[in-house]
Amino acid sequence: MARQINVALIGNPNTGKTSVFNRLTGLNQQVGNYPGITVEKKQGICKLDRGLKAHIIDLPGTYSLNASSLDESVVIELLLNKNDKDFPDVAIVVADVENLKRNLLLFTQIKDLGIPTILAINMADRMKRKAITVDVEALEEKLETKVVLVSSRKNTGFDDLKKWVVNHSQLSTKPCVNASVIAPEYFGRLKKAFPNQDLYKLWLVITQDVNFGKLERGEVKGIATFKTESESNLKRLQQKETIARYQFINGVLKETLTVDTANAKDFRSRLDRILTHKFWGYVIFFSILLLIFQVIFDWSSYPMDFIDETFANLSEWVKNTLPPGDFTNLLAEGIISGLGGIVIFIPQIAFLFLFIAILEESGYMSRVVFLMDRIMRRFGLSGKSVVPLVSGTACAIPAIMATRNIESWKERLITILVTPFTTCSARLPVYLIIIALVIPEERVLGIFSLQGLTLMFLYLLGFGAAIFSAWLLNKFLKIRSRTFFVVEMPNYKVPMFKNVAITVVEKTKSFVLGAGKIILAISIILWVLASYGPGDFNEASQLVTQQNVSNPLTEEELETKIAAFKLEHSYIGIMGKAIEPAVQPLGYDWKIGIAIVSSFAAREVFVGTLATIYSVGSEEEETIKNRMAAEVNPVLGTPRFNFASGISLLLFYAFAMQCMSTLAVVKKETNSWKWPMWQLFLMSAIAYVVALAAYQFLK
Amino acid sequence: MLTIAHLKRGQRAIIKTFEVENVPLKLLEMGCLPGNEVSVVQQAPFRDPLYLNINGSHLAIRKETAALIEIELL
User: Fold this and answer.
1) What are the structural domain ranges in chain B?
2) What ipTM was estimated for this complex?
3) What is the residue-averaged pLDDT of chain A?
């Protein structure tokens, strides 16, 4: 068997680390999660010379080994744990040639851990234009390791990099900076207490508490009882350490790096002058947002219609081809329509991630964060909350995961709590069908369609609810947390196609597999509950035939009646009748009640549930719609879906927390059930009250 | 005390010192160190946050943090 070398890819954010990873591994990569947490774990295989293989882990981007977020702590956890199966034989620190100084800070920390470390200076293709020269040989001598210039855009330098991965045992592991000089007396005590331990490692273990905590302490016995300095003293020492490292780096770069600053004024500052302009910056940002929404809803409607039709046909085909029976029904009505419910969201999600990936790769996203910070802060959010709130229009799950880089815990928590108010794509099918039913097809001022305006209003309502509740939470949540905010403003880059494509594919895949499982499971459960029942259910055909003896009915009409009777007496019908009193004041009957309850698993289940409940054979939207329009409120004699109950439903869906997957992600990200439970309870209570008020007022 | 919060566009300054307790370590790690040169690249409305160039490192910080970092004009 070929021997495998563990390689850790480490670097600052915005150094093109992921493009290096993509170059080394090609499509030979997999994305998973670190056990127990939702931090993405990317790993891949790269073939080397002499039949060797490199197992490469792309660690989350970090500015240093002093972790201040979950993502960053993953890096240090791995590097301090020699027994981890992924512990690197060699580390590649990826640096951006234009930010070499800052990038070297992390390099010195990694090398000081005694891990053979190669420095890969990326974006070497930009050196000429930026008038940067690097004396590679001198740099190698000063840093006592191998330095490789690479360009992931031009695909150069990778052979050299791979060669040194193979020969990593020849690399020196001598530390760059002796950390103990910052406090000789303190480090002396440490050495006495733990004579067999590496001092720098001990220091890292001790200081993680100051910033983040949670580090596995198993490796160093007795460290918890060792009396350390006060927290503010430790902080002071960390600052001293950072300064000492920068002194070393300045000394190294003075003789090895030259930048012709006259040449550096460029494109970047000109673009910044427009894109971060006090007025035009906002105009451009909102135009981009508008464009994104336009594209997501306009362009993706074509593939979505196609998918809808394909699954409907497939279901029909299965029903007609396979022998009739429970299994065929489960397959056709439960599983295939369930799968269709997942697949239909792929176009929107893929388009959204395409835009987000492009905005992030190009460096524009940081400008948005800069522009929006002040405004968002008024509501207890951060400039960095913009990304989650925008992503929330596709799906709250990745949006909530995107809150991780918000430094302040309070701002991050508020962002997580309010993101589910934004109109996610799962609400869209519900909105579309209800709007089509209750909002007349008229035009306002001759141009705007009233239905379209209603939809836009619902989107604004979602954002409004998110912002308003953030403001309330900010008033009432008593959390003291450091509110600091630092955001790097990277260089503008033309997004690399390969990186964007891989992001889109990976994110879409994880949505389909993650959220998809739940949607599929719910559709199967629903199908079972609707297809079986106690008592009367099993004698449905006899009972209905008896009831209608005097009525001349066609066979088809009779069958529809039987199906409706069955449904009413199925398990789900019994449950629906039980909850009917609760939803009646909102203008709904038990069928809508069931659709709402099943939507608590995932909102998009609503239309499918009504489709099943109204015993419509095909899932074609037009038929469901007609069916829904024909429903009559038996008490009032008016259509079931009229203006009042329709608006009430729309508002209910706008506010209610109906998504199990989101709750699960919130639990993971906040590390407690407390917050998702509050979210579920409060959002649903708001939804109920608002829908109730709307119906009672409008009816 | 003159701080980065007072710095105007077009002015250049040297970072002198900062309040150890409240300035996050991350800021130092990103290059905001005593002795480094700092200038304002862009400012958002109400001068908050500030988009800075610190010795070639480009970053944005809030005014309240900027007010903790003492400078000397060049």
Assistant:
1) 4-73
2) 0.95
3) 84
